[in-house]
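In this supplementary section we document a worked example of the pipeline. Step one takes a protein sequence of length 488 as its only input; no multiple sequence alignment statistics are reported here. Step two produces a three-dimensional model, which step three serialises into structure tokens for compact storage. The input and output of this example are shown verbatim.
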Amino acid sequence: MMRLLLISVFIRFAGASIGDIKIIDVNNGIEKDFSFDKRFRPTWSDLDKRPLPEWYDKAKIGIFLHWGVYAVPSFGSEWFWTNWKGNDNNQKYIDFMKNNYPPGFTYQEFAPMFTAEFFDPAAWAQLFAKAGAKYIVLTSKHHEGFTLFPSTRSFSWNSVDVGPRRDLVGELAAAVRNESLKFGVYHSLYEWYNPIYNQDKDNKFKTHTYTDTKLWPDIKQLVNDYKPSVIWSDGDWEAYDDYWRSTDLLAWLYNDSPVKDEVVVNDRWGIGIPGHHGDFYNHADRYNPGELQDHKWENAFTVDKKSWGYRRDMKINEIMSIDELLYQVVSTVSCGGNALINVGPTKEGTIIPIFQERLLSLGEWLSINGEAIYNSSPWFYQNDTMNQKVWYTCAKATYDAAYPTRQPDDDDKVNAIYAIILTWPDKSVLALGDITPYLYSGTYKVEMLGNEGQYLTWKITDGVSAIQLPDITTVKSQNAWTLKFTKK
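The serialised model returned by step three reads:
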């Protein structure tokens, strides 16, 4: 892959930091700048020059938590309120309320029932650590407008004034960091029934009263009080980015906020922005393209296939199996993305056992195979051209902050190639195509993670490598298996 790098190093003191190095990468027309005193202008062309903070690309695995007043009815999805009361009001929700609540019952009356009496932030954080997650993203506010922190602009519609009477964001942030995990927040830009927002909307977004008096103060309070490493924006699709003042906000985040050197943001900052601007791209919910992307991206998906928030009416066949979960994780990381895995807590503050089981199974798998996931980079191939059940990653000796999703080039030293097998092959013989030239050279050795030291044999016929795997009863991994290729 051809790329042009111009590197200037200014040594100010022994052991110069990344802030002393300027790197301009004009690959794909995008410049990146690590200058010590670089300030970003509030324009997309300048904001796009900011390099991705290294921690995010290396982390690979995150946990997403959709938690709010919608956990009380816990019916249908986290869009309960607007599905019940919106312009396209859904008869299923209308009937649910008619059959279970008195006439005249309002959505606001659910808030005191959002009790969180069993919320144990330390236990949650320990679960997430055991699941192998490296960062956590909590909904600080969903589209219903209810905040899980004591918003100074949301009187009586936040978790301290009503319901739990606890600062849920603050408690979880402290617990997560105690487990050495990164903490982030999801924040909806819009609110369905906020009269200030709807007045701006009626004015065709030519006024910015909601942005200036509600949205910005809330986000600045979150950043200053909780110092999140991730700002996961959503609810942007009704207005253009100039209404949200998105570039002004990001310039403040990157230049002057207390998290300016670490924070990462997604791409949901207004009509036309997703997939074009942001530290990482989400594109759309459950986005998994199955092929390498030229910009860092994230696959945010749900263990409950039907909803992001907890719902009592879910069925077991609507819950991802561990094999389905591993497919999302492995294919995502192979193609240069991060996996953000969502579970919805209950109104009492618990994570139900089936969600815990899936997360712990993932953690057990990562404890054996994580070497092929964490800190990995995309290889020359992603999905093997002859075996669709195998995905590749690799380990580079050095990290490319300017272009973290690129394939190796001539300047890279690749310490290992990993082939992750999602289905155990017949007769324990794995057929691969893309690895064949490397095995044919005779300079590689092959072992299975979890069974280190037991080197495998192979035979090459007509460009196909047939690798003899160990007896399946002797391998440590239970659901997917990783072969590690290293030079002798």
